[in-house]
Design a protein that fits this description.
The protein is of the alpha/beta class and 394 residues long. The chain has two domains: 171 residues, VC0802-like; 210 residues, HUPs (Rossmann fold, 3-Layer(aba) Sandwich). 41% of the residues lie in helices and 22% in strands. The chain has 14 helices and 14 strands. The strands form two sheets. An eight-stranded mixed beta sheet has the order 2-3-1-4-8-7-5-6. Strands 13-12-9-10-11-14 form a six-stranded mixed beta sheet, sandwiched between helices. β9, α5 and β10 form a beta-alpha-beta unit. The longest helix has 19 residues. The protein is elongated and about 85 Å long. Bound molecules: adenosine-5'-triphosphate and magnesium ion. The site of adenosine-5'-triphosphate has 20 residues, from α5, β10 and α12.
Length: 394
Amino acid sequence: MKNVFLIKYGELAIKGKNRHLFENKLVTNVKRNLKDVGEFVVTKEQGRIMVEPVDSEAIDVQTVLDRLGRIFGIVGIAYGLKEDEVSLEAVKRLALVQMKDVCKEGEQITFKVDTRRADKRFPMTSMEVSCEIGGYLLDEFGDQVKVDVRHPEVTLQVELRNHTYVYINTYKGAGGMPYGTNGKATLLLSGGIDSPVAGWMIAKRGVEVDAVYFHAPPYTSERAKQKVVDLAKKVAMYTGKMKLHVVNFTDIQLKIYERCPHEELTIIMRRIMMYIAEAIAAKNGSMALITGESIGQVASQTMHSLVVTNNAATMPVFRPLIGFDKEEIVQIAKRIDTFETSIQPFEDCCTIFVAKHPETKPKLDYIKKSEALLDDIIEEMMQKAIDEVEIYEC
Ligand code: ATP
Ligand code: MG
């Protein structure tokens, strides 16, 4: 008898020719996310991934559940028991132990048995196995248990595959698609609440995500940069890793400040961020950009501003939060544990150079004219910023 984590994934979503690719990616991601919490044997078994601790005494179950619960593509995780042989006797042994775990002295619980039979050669039907095990448990536990097939307090799950598995609880997985099965995109990651959530949402769809942060020392401090590194690490708790490119943006910002109309600073800065992010993205094999923008949230995110910013990019720009209210974004940020880091009070480069009355209805022609005031120097400055990018493996 061994302990085992059973991983359930969205079989429907990954039918067809991608199935093997997805399953293998999921196995890789499971191994990677568990690397530092213990030693495990990870195997595929007929539509499940099984994770067996080499020494179940040496692991913390809750930590493993928490790690598995962050892996995209997993819909449910159960922690249960396994016997190598497939037989009714094996089911009984496991069922007895599992039920002892949930039965308390002097209390009656209602239960039912639910059986899945992947190996149809097994000589009994699923229903017959469930009835047989239900009867067996009634004999063993007497008054302590009662069958209720409609609303049982405990559902004992039996799975007959290449081996026998019995478990009670299934925990909800992160959903989505296995990370790394759907191309790559580059996230513009600031220290705010929105962009880490936006990156997480795209990563959840299986897209590999790396990040770019625009840093403006000494106007933005080392601590502000560290905060972004910390946020990348938080998102990496789901993706396994995240490569962060830190761009030194100070000289460019000062030049914009010096030469362009002040009410247009933010929008011009945004457009130049897009140019640079796109160049870094292309260099790294990314096919799209991601931002945390949401219509109307601030002056630089009015419809007009978004259209002008968007025009600077030739790659598709994914804005998964576009229709979200701040409160909805905050809720996700709390759930994925980026919120506390995001609200640490460090200045960001946009707030420092912000105008008193920023343009809220910029016109592309006008902005392009203002941007042209940088024509003689901007190419060279952008190239320098790209060449001098600092990389953090988070
Ligand atoms: P966030 O909470 O993500 O910072 P925000 O509400 O503060 O968003 P803005 O500051 O207008 O909004 O930024 C809009 C988007 O532009 C951000 O979500 C992010 O994708 C990108 N962005 C802004 N500042 C930076 C920066 N310094 N480095 C990288 N990306 C940035
Ligand atoms: Mg911000």
